[in-house]
Write a structure and sequence with these properties.
- The protein has helices at 21-31, 41-45, 89-103, 118-124, and strands at residues 6-8, 11-15, 49-55, 58-67, 72-80, 108-110.
- The protein is α+β, with helices and mostly antiparallel strands.
- A six-stranded mixed beta sheet has the order 1-2-3-4-5-6.
- Strand 5 (72-80), helix 3 (89-103) and strand 6 (108-110) form a beta-alpha-beta unit.
- Helix 3 (89-103) crosses helix 4 (118-124).
- The termini are far apart.
Length: 136
């Protein structure tokens, strides 16, 4: 898949850009208080697609999509830098991820979220469904 930047102001969304662990760990550390440094290459190697948001060359947003090899894809790790939140960037990222997942052949896009994120994911186009979860 080819990178396809789309601009909105000075924030650029890019499909499947090259990323370093440093880039992602910096974003995740700023965004998630309990984040511990992670090697992201194994995760990205299994991803269907990922979308990033950059402003002035700095990574400010990320969303990952994994697939089941068939019709189902799953949103993971929607992350927006705290300085960029509540400006619509997260919705743009998730909608771009949905478009790319569809392009890759997915017909269903799933996401798990905590109750306080229900309105955010509704803005992205998701509707609540019953689901199960098991901690391993």
């Amino acid at each position: 898949m080819v990178n396809s930047p789309a601009q909105n102001g000075d924030t650029v969304l890019t499909v499947r850009p090259e990323l370093t662990d440093d880039d992602l760990n910096e974003l995740f550390s700023a965004s998630w208080p309990n984040h511990t440094p992670t090697a992201f290459a194994p995760m990205l190697a299994r991803s269907l697609v990922w979308i990033t948001a950059s402003r002035d060359g700095r990574l400010v947003g990320f969303v990952n999509v994994v697939g089941d090899g068939g019709l189902h894809a799953f949103i993971l790790d929607t992350t927006v830098h705290p300085d960029e939140r509540r400006q619509g960037l997260g919705v743009r990222l998730v909608r771009a991820a949905a478009d790319e997942a569809k392009t890759c052949g997915a017909e269903w896009l799933h996401v798990d979220y905590e109750p306080h994120l229900e309105s955010f994911y509704a803005q992205c186009g998701f509707r609540p469904t019953a689901a199960g979860l098991m901690r391993l």
